[in-house]
Automatic annotation (TrEMBL):
Name assigned to this protein: DegV family EDD domain-containing protein
Key word rRNA-binding present: no
Domain of life assignment: Bacteria
UniProt-recorded Gene Ontology molecular function terms: glycerone kinase activity; lipid binding
Stretches assigned to the DhaL domain: 9-199
InterPro entries cross-referenced by the UniProt entry: DegV, DegV_C, DegV_domain_contain, DhaL_dom, DhaL_dom_sf, FakA-like_C, FakA-like_M
Keywords: Lipid-binding
Native species: Halanaerobium polyolivorans
Lineage, highest ranks first: Bacteria, Bacillati, Bacillota, Clostridia, Halanaerobiales
GO biological process: glycerol metabolic process
Amino acid sequence: MQINYLDGNRLYYAFLSGSREVIKNRKELNETNVFPVADGDTGTNLSQTLNVVKTELVKDDSLNVTLKSMGDAALKGAIGNSGIIFAQFINGLKNNLANKASTDLNEFAAAVENAVDYTYQGISNPVEGTILTVMKDWSGALKDFKNKTDDFAEAMEKSLDTAFKSLQETKDKLQVLKDADVVDSGAQAFVYFLEGIVDFIKSGNIKEISSTQLENIEKISEKELSLEEDINHRYCTEAYLANLSISTDKLREEISYLGDSLIIAGDEEKLRVHIHTNNPEELFADLEQLADIIDQKADDMLLQYQVKYNKISETAILTDSIADLPQEFIDKHQIHLLPLNILIDGSNYLDKLTINSEKFFTMLEEAEEYPSSAQPTIKTIENKLAYLADHYQSIIVITVSQKMSGTYDNVAKAVEKIRAENEKLEISVIDSKSNSGAQGLLVMEAAEQLSNGKSYQEIVEYLEKIRKNLYIYVSVDDFKYMVKGGRVSPLKGKIANFLNLKPIISIDREGNGVAFAKAFSKKGNFKKINAILKEHQEERGIKRYAIVHGDDQKRAEMFADSFQELLGQKADFVEEISPIVAINAGRGSTAVAVLMREEG
């Protein structure tokens, strides 16, 4: 069938067909993902990007209406290098075909050429042998064919051959692809996208992915690429921004010092920023001064790389960011993190990823409104669990107390969906009935049990058995933060501060926060905690303990030294509390978390 024009309806169905082909090949794209970092997520990221666009795409007779909805949704949903490059390309088309109800091949080919240029401009250091090269070569082929035909069907089918040839040549243009004997995964995804469009043009319908095809996709085995790679910048970090107060070129100058692989897609009104960095918290502190932060993410590429090439177990351990643990321990045991959200003056930050305790306390002093927290959304949790399900046979999730946060409930709901999609996956959600350092100790126990060769089921049963032995005692400097965080009424806080009370906060056996004891000085407070630990030691003995603090390293070290002398054993760790915990505990708080020994 000859097609002489492209309108909104045709674009709508072409996009759906192209997206289907990319999503169908998600596994393969993950497996061949070695550039710019071999973190194995190109297929996942592009699938998520395209799914957002599919959800928000408007089907309309007018090309302008459909393309505008596509461009806006692409910026909103773009994830990863290739996802943001896709978004930039789509927005380039949107800009070049603005106010067009339909377009012919000649005009479309020129728009594609300009969109490719626009895409290159969004990348700080464009690299050939990637999706960019294939886009450029395909655009050149379209430009040639527009002089030979006015039929979209013929031009798209024949230009696909050029795109495929360009794809095969990527492995000769980048040494890392040549060494792994694979083509660039982003470029492969773009070719799949074009193949889906051509298939729709030829068949006139969008083929659904059958259950058999899905099963075969899931059975694709991991290729052993055996890559040894230095990851210089750990976090693949992204921000979705609005109302940028400077130009995108100036923004590039302002943040380029933070890392590499910088891509800026969109314009000052709405844009997506992507950068590989070791300091996500610095990036977002800078961005907060320049734009409205609508959404953000920071993926741990080092952990993704380890999971793909050096995985230590077939059981994944996932915990939320309220669990306080040393980063060294987290890295050694490949523990996965589910960040909670911190809202400060209208901007949402990811606990421990895009904001740390140091930045939090600095921002706290300048905030117009007191910060608040929110559990991760069910969709965010589903995405995390789906990633883990792709790489592990079983998952153990350890959450903050259900009585303190909705995180446990949201995880449980997300697990239902993941189980329905993967019946063979073993997954358990364990309510720690604690938080902070105590939750961290439970995660430590899980990781060490796994290292000692215990099975998934043995670990789950063990954790459910020992969590009753967890205790935490928090010495709060004053009630100010608990009042502002909503944990204590203003009246009670005012009376307590007037009396100079220094409370000790604990958690009961059901996971509720309780006022455990109080003193009239920090010194008196410390003596009470010291006496409590002595009672625990005499009762059954303490297996392990940890010290956590809110920006008071000196007092935390004093706690650690004193308790070591008292108990005859060293603390497992001394760490700063997470920003989420700091909202209520506040600056100057210090806590000891304890795991008692089993009876008998």
